[in-house]
Amino acid sequence: MKKVYTVLKDNYEDAGQASRDIKMTLKMLEINPKVLKRISIACYEAEINLVIHSNGGTITFELDDDGIVKLSFDDTGPGIENIELAMTPGYSTASKEAREFGFGAGMGLDNMKNCASTFDIQSSKDGTHLRMTFQ
Amino acid sequence: MKPVVSWLEKKCYNCIKCLKSCPTDAISIVNHEVNIDESQCIHCDVCMKECPSRVLKVQGAHISETLHEHEYNVVLIPTSLLSDLKSFEEFQEICQAILKLGFDEVEQYSDIEGFLYKKAIEESQQKEGIWLTSFCPTINELIEKKYPTLFDRLLPYDYPVEIAAKKIRERLKGKDVGIYSLCECVGKMTLAKEPFGNKTSHIDYALSISHVFPKINKLKNQEKASIQMNKYGVKSNVEDLFGNRSLSVIRVEGLNQSKSLLDLIEFDRIQHVDLVAMYACYQGCIGGYYLWSNPFEGCYNIESLIDECVGEIACLDEDDYFINRQMNRQEMKSMKERMVWFDKVNEILETLPQYDCGACGFANCRSLAQGIVNGKVDIQSCRVKKR
User: Fold this and answer.
1) Residue partners of B4: CB distance under 8 A and separation at least 6
2) Phi and psi at residue A134, to the nearest 5°
3) Would you call A99 an interface residue with chain B, using a CB distance cutoff of 8 Å?
4) CB-based contact (8 Å) between A44 and chain B?
């Protein structure tokens, strides 16, 4: 099963819609709640990142026959300058606007990594590509 | 467990208000018959309130039939009963009238609620993460059935009424005791052994307050029962009184608000709160379906009575209140089979109008599509397609 969602830059109003749909789908499929909890948190964090930091992009949700969930987040830039620094808990480059919405506490990437079974991030100025799997 | 909400066929004209209002899509109407899926029902009161012909009912026990079954009968009264009364003396008169229905003892459990109220606030501040109170049976069922990822965040406390029943059993060991719970809401009715077959309960029979109210009213006079209430227990029953605004506790009432909040908690978006007190009813337990008064004035009544609640708080051991909740999950098919089923549902859904009109007897087009895939109905059920 595969679903692709488009996420628009700075669209705070609809931020989280893709994560809601993915969560609802997985609930209907009665996936293990412990795994779903990790997926929900990581997916939401990553979706918000697309909204507040990127120029927009897509979320690809895949589920295989063994129940392994793969989430891919691909944007079109501007890229993360220093991934290592961005992974540090508390480090944040979020705008004042984003922080006012309650986002951008700087726990995102580290939190996602803790939730996912595998975590891979590649970034250049043309875009960031994040892959996570959950089982 | 046996079905809790029953449908009295005779006067039902299939208006579909019940199925449209059900917060968990548990209701369907097939061949003019209302079906309530017990595995989805969270035992709130929404369908019963919505039904214009009043054909959805919960039948409690009948004391005239059951009181002789035991030598000694004890009745547990809900704290929220206070909200219907104007003075504490009147409350004591009501309790005496309840006793006169044929019970040997009338017992309250606000002291236990008070203990758990304090314990919940204290423990949630000490332990990491966000905790959910576990006092509302309907909210607990909502979490188990619709938000399973948060089931392990429910405080591991048994219901105060259950603890009270257990304590009575211990105290009257060796006696043939029948324990009754007078209930202010549908959710609480489901906790007893009878009539719905909740075998693990310490309570024998569930009675609704409104069912016995006319009799109580007749028996009421100046005589008072010597009953005291604990103010913290009273607070735990009322949304507006729970916790303290300066603590990291939030209070939420109503199923829709609770669902919105649970959605956010699932995404870990509630980060500066330690405890969430959720109630299915408006203003908390005092909004219970079986209370004869109303929660609007009830809230005022209870606030003005709180200083008269001078009863002591209970002192409980962990053994008394701790409960290891297990999720009631059915045996599942493999993920592959579930995905095949899900794809079929989506395929049918695509061919349906997706207005979610409910005319077919299902709450929405997705539920109809599921019904079709599960072989309950065929696609001809869709009135819109048929035209």
Assistant:
1) B38, B41, B43, B58, B186, B189, B190, B196
2) -135, 135
3) no
4) yes
Please check whether residue A65 touches B, CB under 8 A.
Answer: yes
Q: Confidence class of residue A88 from pLDDT cuts 50, 70 and 90?
A: confident
**A12, A26, A29, A35, best to mutate vs chain B, most B CBs in 10 Å:** A29
CA distance A123 to chain B (A): 25
Burial letters A36-64, b for 16+ CB under 10 A, else e: bbbbbbbbbbbbbbbbbbbeebebebebe
What the block records as the tokens of B130 is 């966000």
Q: Identify all chain B residues contacting A111, using CB atoms and an 8 Å cutoff.
A: 268
Give this complex's ipTM: 0.89
Q: Give CA–CA dist B35/B6, Å, rounded.
A: 9
Closest Cα in chain A, distance from residue B377 (Å): 20
pLDDT of residue B48: 96
Report the distance separating Cα B256 and Cα B239, nearest Å.
15
Q: Is pLDDT above 60 for A75?
A: yes
Mind telling me how many Å the CA of B219 is from chain A's nearest CA? 51
pLDDT in tens, B270-290: 988 999 999 999 999 999 999
Query: How far B342 CA sits from the closest chain A CA (Å)?
Result: 7
- In tens, the pLDDT along B24-60 reads 999 999 999 999 999 999 999 999 999 999 999 999 9
- Nearest beta carbon to residue A29 from set B148, B266, B338: B338
Which of A64, A65, A111 is the mutation pick for testing B, counting most B CBs within 10 A? A65
pLDDT in tens, B134-157: 999 999 999 999 999 999 999 999
User: Which of the residues in chain B have pLDDT under 70?
Assistant: none
CB A23 within 8 A of CB A43: yes
Q: Token digits for B122? A: 């204290």
Exposure pattern of B78-116 as b/e (b: 16+ CB <10 Å)?
bbbbbbbbeebeebbbbbbbbbbbebbbbbbbbbbbbbb
Edge-to-edge strands, sheet with B275-279: B131-132, B275-279, B249-253
What pLDDT sits at residue B244? 82
Contact (CB<8Å) A20/B339: no
Q: Which residue among B266, B271, B339 sits closest to A65, beta carbon to beta carbon?
A: B339
* Option in A1, A16, A20 nearest B339 (CB): A1
Question: C-alpha distances in angstroms, A4 versus A60, A74, A75, B340?
Answer: 4, 11, 13, 19
